[in-house]
Write a structure and sequence with these properties.
Blueprint lengths: L4 E9 L3 E6 L2 E6 L11 E5 L2 E6 L1 H13 L10
Antiparallel strand pairs: 1-2, 1-4, 2-3, 4-5
Length: about 80
């Protein structure tokens, strides 16, 4: 099974790279597949690539549900 999860972009780097926050863990990902991503946007991340931008409200709901199910340690930061 594959899992793509919402992550908040905290920094845009060179060469279509970004740093995202995944429940307090920061990870370097590629933005090569998504256009016009800005700091603060939520993206769906799968195997190190942002696949699409996500509505912040939907991202928060998904992260909260994942935390309640014990799949993550904490809900998304507001």
């Amino acid at each position: 099974m594959c899992l793509a999860i919402p992550a908040r972009v905290v920094e845009i780097a060179a060469d279509d790279q970004a740093i995202v926050d995944l429940g307090g863990v920061r990870k370097n990902i590629s933005l090569a597949l998504v256009e016009d991503v800005q700091v603060g946007d939520y993206v769906i991340v799968h195997v190190g690539y942002a696949l699409t931008r996500l509505d912040p409200e939907e991202a928060e709901k998904t992260l909260t549900l994942m935390a309640e199910a014990g799949l993550t340690e904490q809900a998304a930061a507001s």
